[in-house]
């Protein structure tokens, strides 16, 4: 069994309380690890180490080129240990090994991208309005950063935060989800191997109400970055307000996938499936809300149903598995609650809506791919994030109608639409109020492009140059070379 402890100030250590947690495989409920179960005291110790390292250590003043070299070395270690990392991610989350391998490739690319970007921000020289003076704007590291990552993409989401923060010269305290900590522990060990100085990278394990709350409230933390549920995100904002720390939030979405009559039908169906059922729908950008125009609605639903029937459930480690389990029994209960609620509200269950009857899947937290039609925009199944293998279908007639429907949500993370009409492409891309809009595609991202949401999907951006800027403060430096007396007062 794997064992894991906190990593604070360059040392691996048990929880101050001595508590431990068992980490289980959602595929069969088997114990796969025992790890430290930290609390506020452990988080505070990690913050103190990160604060000391930032204020008194050399890291913020380490040349950007050297910070980039360390990140590049870390990318190489991820590539070296790709298979081990992918297997840990699959054991921890239940996703297929193929998906985990894709994640590891992306993670290595993210570290390499920010390694290359670390020394490219040279600031800006302004034209000063005053003779004999210069004026320039520089970016400096924001300081100590608390980074709270979710359970659905544990290492990928951690890398989105870790890489730009380190490139900027910040020190970090990472808190993975308590139910999926294994790959974050591994990347911490790889950071140690790469040569990051003690206190630069710290990792604390434990529950959000203790460890996460300490990171959000501790006045020695300059920025808190959180990816997860909207209720927790709002709590972090409230907690961070007392010390007026910077907040970066990615809080999920209810993402419309719009199919017009003139779409490439087969591609739209294929991507509708891809948009929902990777990682059993446990994706913040999942296209779980399908809006299909009248002319193709019935055919689209029938084809989607037939394809969904053939989705293969099983262990993520097994060849041929297309969809793994949900993360936990409690999360499956949540999905089942939403399915029952949808039926009460009048949505028509076309497929799924139950646990599989395969005896080989009974020990895990599996749920069948589920399809609802006759959905209305006011239904909770349409408005709220289910985070499971459930897709709803709404029917629409006109472009104006579907724009209003799609934008009629508190979320604004991502949206996609399918059409062959170039003019419609421009109109729709401009009208949709979402941080990412896909045209004839769905659920694609890459490190060079910023990621984040409008409205209650969050604050700030990850990835791209904007992701690096989140971890910097802007400073204006004004230098007067010919200072003269003003002689205004008391002359």
Q: Keyphrases for this structure?
A:
491 residues, alpha/beta, Aldehyde Dehydrogenase, Chain A, domain 1, Aldehyde Dehydrogenase, Chain A, domain 2, 2 domains, six-stranded mixed beta sheet, 15 helices, 20% strand
Structure, described:
α3 (82-93) crosses α4, α7 (208-217) packs parallel to α8 and α9 packs across α10 (294-309). The chain has 491 residues and is α/β, with parallel strands linked by helices. The chain has two domains: 2-251 and 461-477, Aldehyde Dehydrogenase, Chain A, domain 1, CATH 3.40.605.10; 256-439, Aldehyde Dehydrogenase, Chain A, domain 2, CATH 3.40.309.10. It has helices spanning 40-56, 64-80, 82-93, 97-117, 154-168, 182-194, 208-217, 230-241, 265-277, 294-309, 329-345, 380-383, 399-407, 422-431, 464-469; strands at residues 2-4, 6-8, 11-13, 20-24, 31-36, 124-126, 133-141, 144-148, 171-175, 201-203, 223-227, 246-250, 256-259, 289-293, 348-351, 370-373, 390-396, 414-418, 436-439, 458-459, 472-480.
Distance between the termini: 80 Å
CATH fold assignment of the largest domain = Aldehyde Dehydrogenase, Chain A, domain 1
Shape: globular
The number of helices is 15
Give the total of beta strands: 21
Examine the secondary-structure arrangement and name the CATH architecture of the largest domain. Answer: 3-Layer(aba) Sandwich
| Mean pLDDT level | 97
């Amino acid at each position: 069994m794997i064992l894991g402890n906190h990593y604070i100030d360059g040392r691996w250590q048990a929880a101050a309380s001595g508590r431990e947690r068992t980490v289980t495989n959602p595929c069969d409920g088997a114990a796969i690890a025992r790890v430290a179960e930290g609390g506020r005291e452990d988080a505070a110790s990690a913050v103190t180490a990160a604060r000391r390292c930032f204020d008194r250590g050399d890291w913020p003043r380490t040349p950007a080129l050297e910070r980039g070299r360390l990140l590049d070395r870390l990318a190489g270690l991820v590539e070296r240990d790709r298979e081990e990392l992918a297997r840990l991610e699959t054991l921890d989350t239940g996703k297929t090994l193929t998906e985990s391998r894709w994640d590891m490739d992306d993670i290595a690319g993210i570290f390499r991208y920010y390694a290359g970007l670390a020394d490219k921000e040279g600031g800006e020289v302004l034209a000063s309005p005053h003779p004999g003076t210069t004026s320039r704007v520089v970016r400096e590291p924001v300081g100590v950063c608390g980074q709270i990552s979710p359970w659905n993409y544990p290492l990928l989401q951690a890398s989105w935060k870790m890489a730009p923060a380190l490139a900027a010269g910040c020190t970090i305290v990472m808190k993975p989800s308590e139910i999926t900590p294994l790959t974050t522990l591994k990347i911490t060990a790889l950071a140690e191997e790469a040569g990051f100085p003690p206190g630069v990278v710290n990792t604390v394990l434990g529950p959000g109400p203790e460890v996460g709350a300490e990171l959000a409230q501790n006045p020695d933390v300059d920025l808190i970055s959180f990816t997860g549920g909207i209720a927790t995100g709002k709590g972090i904002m409230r907690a961070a307000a007392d010390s007026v720390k910077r907040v970066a939030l990615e809080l999920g979405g209810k993402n419309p996938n719009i199919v017009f009559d003139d779409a490439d039908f087969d591609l739209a169906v294929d991507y509708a499936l891809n948009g929902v059922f990777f990682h059993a729908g446990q994706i913040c950008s999942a296209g779980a809300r399908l809006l299909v125009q009248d002319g193709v609605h019935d055919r689209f639903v029938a084809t989607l149903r037939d394809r969904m029937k053939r989705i293969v459930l099983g262990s993520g480690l097994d060849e041929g598995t297309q969809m793994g389990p949900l993360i936990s029994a409690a999360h499956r209960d949540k999905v089942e609650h939403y399915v029952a609620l949808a039926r009460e509200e009048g949505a028509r269950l076309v497929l799924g809506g139950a646990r599989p009857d395969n005896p080989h899947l009974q020990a895990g937290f599996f749920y069948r791919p589920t399809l609802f039609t006759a959905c209305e925009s006011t239904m909770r199944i349409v408005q709220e994030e289910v985070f499971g293998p459930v897709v709803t279908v709404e029917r629409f007639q006109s472009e104006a109608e579907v724009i209003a429907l799609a934008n009629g949500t508190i979320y604004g993370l991502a949206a996609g639409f399918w059409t062959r009409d170039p003019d419609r492409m421009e109109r729709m891309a401009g009208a949709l109020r979402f941080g990412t809009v896909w045209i004839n595609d769905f659920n694609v991202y890459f490190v060079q492009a910023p990621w984040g949401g409008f409205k209650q999907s969050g604050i700030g951006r990850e990835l791209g140059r904007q992701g690096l800027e989140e971890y910097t403060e802007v400073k204006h430096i004004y230098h007067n070379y010919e200072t003269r007396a003003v002689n205004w007062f008391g002359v």
